[in-house]
Design a protein that fits this description.
With about 280 residues, the chain is of the alpha/beta class. Helices cover about 30% and strands about 35% of the residues. The chain folds into 2 domains: about 5-75, Alpha-Beta Plaits (2-Layer Sandwich), CATH 3.30.70.930; about 125-275, Rossmann fold (3-Layer(aba) Sandwich), CATH 3.40.50.150. The protein contains 7 helices and 14 strands. The longest helix has 14 residues, at about 15-30. The relative contact order is 0.11. The mean pLDDT is about 90.
Length: about 280
């Protein structure tokens, strides 16, 4: 039987950083999945976890700094795919990587990633995913052990394997993302990716050559120490999910663990940072 979800459509002004704050607050009260729209976000919570007063705890809705309007309705999980198909368009990164759904034509670039467009974050359309793909394009991943933390659709783990990574762990705390990553790993015929459902507590005694973490800023700040401890000497840490103004805060924390900022990519005020462990 399909789960019933409550769907909220939020219009947020100004959109940035309003949507980031709203997603963080909604996630804290039980919302599972988010889709960015032109005017804000669409958010989903299972009906069994929902209550009439759930938005009473969302402080940004009462903030004078933002104007936020919303409506809500029930939706079955199976209906989401049809919505994605209507709105999901293929993209290309640096004329080398195509990210598309199974129903899109293959443009025959060097790398072709096929993602079933469901509710998980990470279709390549968001600036942070796009920039992470750009970083991975420049890295030698042959036989490197890779972690994709907060894997969403599994897109970055899948791309890492296409570039020779072996083995790769993909982790997400969201059950929907976990299930979707498993599907996409199989769809792209990946053989060396293991998908886990959980958080950074799964990383005890793990070691990696490359760690990818495209997550909310506050979660990154909590977990950077864990990532640093899991990184092999001369390893690479890629971080995204935050804005250019957040770089000093992130860099102050990362610098505590013998990691040096080497370069970063910026796209529409979002950034993706590359650190090396020396």
């Amino acid at each position: 039987m399909d789960n019933i979800y409550i769907e909220y459509n939020f219009t947020v002004s100004p959109k940035e950083p309003g949507t980031e704050i709203l997603i963080a607050e909604l996630g804290a009260v039980g919302f599972e999945s988010f889709v960015e729209t032109e005017s804000g976000i669409t958010a989903y919570i299972q009906k069994e976890d929902w209550k009439n007063t759930i938005l009473d705890e969302i402080f940004i809705l009462n903030s004078d700094e933002f104007s936020i309007e919303y409506n809500q309705n029930e939706v079955e999980q199976t209906n989401w795919n049809a919505e994605w198909e209507k709105n999901f368009s293929p993209i290309q990164v640096d004329d080398l990587v195509s990210i598309r759904a199974p129903f899109h034509e293959n443009p025959n670039l060097k790398f072709d990633i096929v993602i079933e467009p469901k509710m998980s974050f990470g279709t390549g359309h968001h600036e942070t995913t796009h920039m992470m793909v750009q970083h991975l394009l420049k890295l030698d991943l042959e036989n490197k052990k890779v972690l994709d933390m907060g894997c969403g659709t599994g897109i970055l783990a899948i791309f890492a394997e296409m570039k020779g990574a072996n083995p790769t762990d993909a982790i997400d705390i969201d059950n929907w993302c976990y299930e979707n990553s498993l599907e996409n790993v199989e769809r792209n015929n990946c053989k060396n990716i293991t998908v886990y459902e959980g958080d950074s507590s799964l990383l005890t005694n793990k070691k990696y050559d490359v760690i990818i973490a495209n997550i909310n800023r506050n979660i990154l700040l909590m977990d950077i120490k864990v990532y640093a401890n899991c990184l092999n000497e001369n390893g690479v840490l890629l971080l995204s999910g935050f804005y250019k103004d957040d770089i000093p805060t992130i860099d102050t924390e990362v610098s505590k663990y013998s990691l040096k900022l080497e370069t970063y990519i910026e796209r529409n005020n979002w950034v993706a940072l590359k650190y090396n462990k020396k």
